[in-house]
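Contributing new complexes? Match this layout with adenosine-5'-triphosphate.
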Amino acid sequence: MPVCVQQASKAVSTCQTAGNPPESWDQDDRSTTLDAESAESAQAEEEEKEEEQKDMEDGELTEDEVAKYLSNLGRSATGLQHVYLSLSIPRKSLKNVSILSNYIHLQKLELPNNKIKDLSCVSHMPYLIVLDVSHNEISDFFGFQPPKNLKEVDFSHNHISSMKDLSAYTCLRKLILDYNSISEIRGLEKCSSLTHLSMEHNKILRISGLRNLPLRQLYLKGNLIKRTENLQTLRTLQILDLSSNRIQSLSGLQDLHLLANINLESNMVGEIKECTHLQYLLLLRDLNLKRNPVQEQPDYRLAVIFILNHLTVMDEKPVTVEEKVLAVNKYDPSLEVVAARDHMTHMMYQHMQPQGIFDSTLPSLDTPYPMLVLTGPQACGKRELAHKLCHEYSDFFGYGACHTTRGPYFGEEDGCDYHFVQDEEFQNMIRMGSFVQTMQYGGHWYGLSREAIESVAREGLACCVHMELEGVFSLKTSYFEPRYILLIPTRIEDYVSHMKARGFYTKAQIEKAVSRIDLYTKINRERPGFFDSVIICDDRKEAYSALRQLIKEYLGLEEQEKEGRRSTGVTPQNATTDEGGESMTAKKLDANPTDTYSQNYYSKVQTRLLPQKTSAELASIHRRQQMVRDALVGKIPRAYTQLFKRYVHPVPSLLTPQSADHNEDSSSEESCTSSGLSMNGSAGVLSVGSPADGLDAGSGPKVEPLDVSLLGQNLERLKDHMEPGLSPDSSCSAPEQASPTVASSPGRPGSNAKPILPPIPLGRKAARICATADRAGRTGG
Ligand SMILES: Nc1ncnc2c1ncn2[C@@H]1O[C@H](COP(=O)(O)OP(=O)(O)OP(=O)(O)O)[C@@H](O)[C@H]1O
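Output block (do not edit by hand):
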């Protein structure tokens, strides 16, 4: 307030002195008035000068004052005297600090928030290390002789408009020049120790003059910078703040491999793809792109997190694990995720439709509908081989034609190779729940419809289809359990020239197909059993004969041929359609019931959904296993020994007449034994079958030891599969009832079981198979 009053009175007096005289004054009076006036103004000037002088004296640092603020008593650099090393005088409106020339031993000088313009006193401080003259009125950049050890300088909030050569300041580590009017960075070339440079809120138009500096932190916030240029030599840079500039592109940052923190808030970055310039900065953890146009891009955050997957903080918000997983699932989902999504989509749309039963492909409890899938990269010959196979083994296989939105190639027929449909129709079919699986390949949709499989199944044939790897993954999530045969080219040149020769493919398509060979081989290498068989398809003829051989093994036709040739001398071609051969095939198929697929779709899903066992449950399993072990060494009453007997009751026929034909085989026993393991809840006794069945320890050759290691597992599985109120024993004692079964041998890919297709359903072969069944019935079924 006093200052204001003083200023106001000063203004009034000035105004009065400088104002024009009133017009009414006459000429005579004028001379005397002027004399008086000049005397007054001289007096006023004198007063002003005195006031200024007083002000100067106020802003002048005196020895007494210095004495008050000195601190940090220590030894002088020469080590001979005790001296004060630090002086800190903030907010004193100091203007003249020339007295400090006498304080030559100062190592730290802090004079922030004063009115200092001249710093020449620093020239007399050769040992100065830290200088803070922020918030002053300095316009002369480093206007003093260089103290050779000067390490930290703060010139922020001054009036500096240009930089000068600082080559004498080789020790300078930290330089703060925020809030000045500097338009160009220069003079720092020789500052070989400079690790921290801050020039925020200046008028810098472009980044320059930083070449090869060992900077770790660079702050250039609030300038007029448009490009992230001339930074590539700052190899040690860790923190870069370029917020509040005009940057559009992030190109130029890609070589700064130590960057951990980039602040680009309030710039003009508009494209997500700009982040790809940062994707190889593996140490980058914190990126701020707030208030950039890029924020408006859909899924901006997820996309950036996907590109820069090492980020832990983005736009000042921590990046969560969930976000990282979401980002990967969105932009580069694994084959499993794609398959799961595909399956989910089709299941959902299917369930939204009125439910109809596809009777021919309906999965039974232990035998799925038989399917054969040929897979491999595009144009490896799988389609050709599938057609050939279905033609030669037309009594066993029918070709399942997929739907596609691509147009037919020359010579392709609608309904034969594919069902060619428009995109709209394909999408409609998806929404109608028509597909089992779909995939996009080369910009077109492909899909295997339920109806395509069912129409083959209605013919009494197994369905043979071809598809890419994604289709296989998807099909594996469905209740179908096909055999998968991988056809893989190994001579890449031949493969490429074959594709070129077909004349359908662009260079990019060929490259894509070739690149996918690795994907197939990788899956085959890393997931043993994922494919049931692998056939090299460099030579189509050889590939087909390998496939043919495999199929004959699958169908059991090999032995049939041998037998047939031995007894009747029929040719292999005839053998497949020969009635005797057919019955042989049926026999072969049923003679290995341990190969049936017990883990049907529902139990698979159930198993996946089962929670982890609690410690109580594990203890229970352990107890029961112990009981069994005790029984083995005879410690337990006789009732337990029944566990180790094979159950001989015939298994209910859920399959074809062929399987009924073999119910008396040991296979049925096995199936029932494993499925019949049960816990008698009331008695707390484990039992198999009923005593009424005449089972007794040691009675007859049918008593075989049970695989004890499987016991706990089977008990648990059975428990899970049992409906409440359903007696476990009833599964065996009432064969006509379709009870849940848990077969002992899964016979799935990767198991040691010889691969065999499930029984071909009734159809074209019905008459012959019925005849076989009749014969079996007559002989004792
Ligand atoms: N339903 C499906 N699911 C997944 N992939 C499929 C499906 N139907 C076809 N495919 C595969 O899509 C790829 C492209 O099919 P397309 O018929 O256009 O190729 P192509 O050049 O004729 O090669 P190919 O001789 O292997 O069929 C092929 O590898 C094909 O096997």
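Reviewers usually confirm one structural detail per submission. For this one: The two ends are 118 Å apart (CA to CA).
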